[in-house]
Amino acid sequence: MLRFFLNTLKFILVVTGAIFLSTLGINAADSWKNPENSMLAGALSSIAKPDKCSEGMVYVGTSEGGYCIDAYENSASESCAYDIPKNQPETRLNLSNTECIPVSVKGASPWRNISQSQAMQACAKAGKRLPTNEEWFFAALGTPDEPSSWGSSDCNVNKNSISEDLALTGSGGNCVSALGAYDMVGNVWEWMGDTIKSGKFGETEVPNSGYVTSADENGIPSETNATSSDPNYNLDRFWVKKEGVMGMFRGGYWLSRSDAGIYTIQAGIPPSFVGNAIGFRCVK
């Protein structure tokens, strides 16, 4: 009786396995021209595809798992007392409102007049954080960095937007990175979550201010030249003060002209600095 049961179970398993393999083979053959429709591809995609980023963010894949970054420079939500803060006190009042959070939407005025620590608080209120230099740089790759002759659809680096000053988020249709992040070059500077301490980024000594002539894999300048630019780095500039703790913002703003770019970094101003040309975006 036991042997009969075992033989029957073995027969069922063999038949079931054969049916599964046949189905997989037929599916693979049917999907030769459309491999994304195959069972195998479906199984693999469920493992390989990242969780979908929330609305207003784009995914940046990395060997360590990837992350989401805001597609647009952040603006103040409709719940904020000041939709366009004009100074630091107005930013503080926004941050004191539990319902006021930064949002990543197209066609809004970027939230400026905010210090690095305040930008960190704003991102935290949205369940996010400021990007590291590495995260920002990877998301910015592929953004066109024109040296001159900027049109209204290009990155806003010469008051060349339709408004002829600060542009609304995403209004420069050509100013988009390979992964879909807008305005990474120009419009407003963007705060990083990193700092320069006594002339060092981490344990690495940074070069003096000048044109970027070499950079590491994270877009941090490793060599600069005071007078000569390197076309491989799109005339981008690096500014630094090698005393004390300096905040870092990247990309340039609406009057940076050819100095703006994905390698452009300002690291000569304290983290407490607040300016009309500095904004932020967040990651998660």
Description:
The protein is an alpha+beta fold and about 280 residues long. It is built from five helices and 13 strands. It has a seven-stranded mixed sheet with strand order 9-8-10-12-11-5-13. It has a two-stranded antiparallel sheet with strand order 1-2. A two-stranded antiparallel ribbon has the order 3-4. The longest helix is centred in the N-terminal third of the chain and has 29 residues, at about 1-30.
Average pLDDT works out at 87
Gap from first CA to last CA: 61 Å
- What can be said about the biggest beta sheet? 7 strands, mixed
Shape: globular
Following the backbone from N to C, one meets helices and strands in this order, namely HHEEEHEHHEEEEEEEEE
Helix proportion range:
10-25%
Unreliable residue runs: 1-50
CATH class: Alpha Beta
Note the main attributes of this structure.
284 residues, alpha+beta, paralog of FGE (formylglycine-generating enzyme), seven-stranded mixed β-sheet, two-stranded antiparallel sheet, disordered N terminus
Short summary of the structure?
The protein has 284 residues and is α+β, with helices and mostly antiparallel strands. The chain contains 5 helices and 13 strands.
Give the SSE map.
Elements: H1 2-30, H2 39-48, E1 57-60, E2 67-70, E3 75-76, H3 88-96, E4 102-103, H4 116-125, H5 133-140, E5 189-197, E6 200-201, E7 204-205, E8 210-215, E9 221-225, E10 237-240, E11 245-251, E12 261-269, E13 278-279
Parallel strand pairs: 5-13, 10-12
Antiparallel strand pairs: 1-2, 3-4, 5-11, 6-7, 8-9, 8-10, 11-12
